[in-house]
Specification:
Number of domains of chain B: 3
Distance between the termini of chain A: 63 Å
Helix content of chain B: 40-55%
CATH topology of the largest domain in chain B: Rossmann fold
Order of helices and strands of chain B: HHHHEHHEHEEHEHHEEHEHEHHHH
Largest sheet of chain A: 4 strands, mixed
CATH class of the largest domain in chain B: Alpha Beta
Number of helices of chain B: 16
CATH topology of the largest domain in chain A: Glutaredoxin
Shape of chain A: globular
Oligomer: heterodimer
Radius of gyration of chain A: 20 Å
Distance between the termini of chain B: 47 Å
Shape of chain B: globular
Strand order of the largest sheet of chain A: 2-1-3-4
Largest sheet of chain B: 5 strands, mixed
Strand content of chain B: 5-15%
Largest interface: A-B, 57 and 71 residues
Strand content of chain A: 5-15%
Chain lengths: 204, 442
Amino acid sequence: MSFHPRMDYAPATFHTSARTLAEEGEPFAFTPEHQASFDDNVARYPPDQRKSAILFALYLAQRQQGYITGAAMRHVAGQIGCTAAEVEDVVSYYTMFYTKPVGKYVLNVCRTLSCALLGAERLTESLCEALGIEPGQTTPDGEFTVIEVECLGACDRAPVVMVNDDWHERLAPERAAEFLEDIRKRGLPACSGCHLDVERDATR
Amino acid sequence: MSAQPGTAFEPVLTRHVREANSFALDSYLKQSPGYEGLRKALTQRPGEIIEQVKASGLRGRGGAGFPTGLKWQFVLKDTPKPKYIACNADESEPGTFKDHVLMERNPHLLIEGCAIGCYAIGARVAYIYIRGEFLHVQEILEKAIEEAYHAGYLGKNIFGSGFDCDVYVHRGAGAYEAGEETALIESLEGKRAQPRIKPPFPAVEGLYQCPTAVNNVETLCNVPFIVLNGAEWFAALGPEKNGGPKLYCISGHVERPGVYEASMHTTLRELVFGEQYARGMAGGRAFKAIIPGGSSVPILLDKDLDTPASFDGVQKAGSLLGSAGLIVMDDSVCMVWLAMNLLHFYRHESCGKCTPCREGGDWLYKLLQRVESGEGREKDIDLLFGVASNIVGKTLCAFGDAAATPVLTTLNLFRHEFEAHVREGRCTLPAEWRTSRPVLAH
């Protein structure tokens, strides 16, 4: 049985690659602190296996300028001792690296089953409605980006949202707008965290 | 059933997690094993440790349930190459969040397990591969490692035994596939997380082409207890071949979701409805179905719930214990929607290396989207079955089978729901029951 659609072979549109070139961006080099941090990390691996530090280097680059540009990839390639193509290969595979500018706060809404059972889809809708954007977009003021992500591994605290590197648990769709206001006011401390936070609970 | 009524089970792994500062070294030293497992291990020969782990019957807690002692025994001994432990802390299987708790609240237990593992297989470096999203957990873990170095539980000449051991944390960057053992190794080497052809298995050629044991966090956390309390003690905690304590992650429509530790005598029904566990269905709704081992395993129904939640018990009931992520669903859940939700996951996470999984996952998602939105045709149901069956067994790693499972299991148990969608041109559950929104194009 064939389930493949009928296809005209080799028309003009056939095999047009969706690949877009990375933005070149400003000239890039690690700050001295990031350079020291990288040198420290790369020492964890055997001397002939510097490539193992590539994810760490990319996190540093992303922290330094918010997203990863062509110039940053080239700099990382120089640090590792591999080709820029190898770096791009890695950047394009992992979801936590951004190749376009993102908002000051990136709301990663978990959309996989356990969170979805408790309203993650409506949560994304509420967040997007309050911000006037679609999933994947950034608000015009550059404050918020909403991204739907797959299972974050905190299914007992569904629905879960990861804001940059912080977490907020059990965010009811009805409270989405309130949560955004809270972030605007207080920044990341508005996030509840996602801990079995015995120490915090004891002080309540 | 062999379930022990009243469950006199004392938590082992999570015994202290609710105590204040349980993650700090001074708290850990007051607990068992408190690095006494490592101290004892270093007085024995590595081979003896492997024999003990084998005798305990410890099975890998990551999903496959492979005996840990055997895995260690397979690690090539006579080689000039260094050997490695790669601890799998990628925890990405939907419905699984047990390692999260262990690393956050009891990081020293994992460090001790890593050190004993290294000693047993003759390695001196362990890498803990943690998923990129767990930065808050990583910070706790790194701090604990620093404490362990300062106190002499890691580093050079531990306990004066001449054994050196380094433990490093390696942060991933968002890829479910990195949880597959060879893909994890690729990612550790700084490449895309894509699986390798096996054999050679990691025990022979793993990280940097050197012999490597890849073990789950919970697996390694059990090791110090086995060394300290003995293989018999461990085996006696559960049914035959399913010994030791087990962490269960319960999520979905239950009253009290969370991580619960129990023996593998405990039945699925006790875990879902038991007073000391998840306390039954939220809002008093009716139970519909359960996925007992993370999203990659077949669904079980109410009639299967009296099965012991052990590797063998759940397998006998027609599913797998997998990572012990129990996802519970009430009667408001549309099974076509469920399959669509999970195929969105698998489509997104497929690493793209094998064609059946990369292309098949996408086709399955599109077909499910069509059926769920009420535009499905009758032949789409057979088509779903055909595409899913053509993925199973045709990929390098188990991801392909995992991606096909949600479709095959829902078709098998809830085919009437698919047929109703096609016949009625819409989802047949009352609209107000729907947890899902209308399908959005994306």
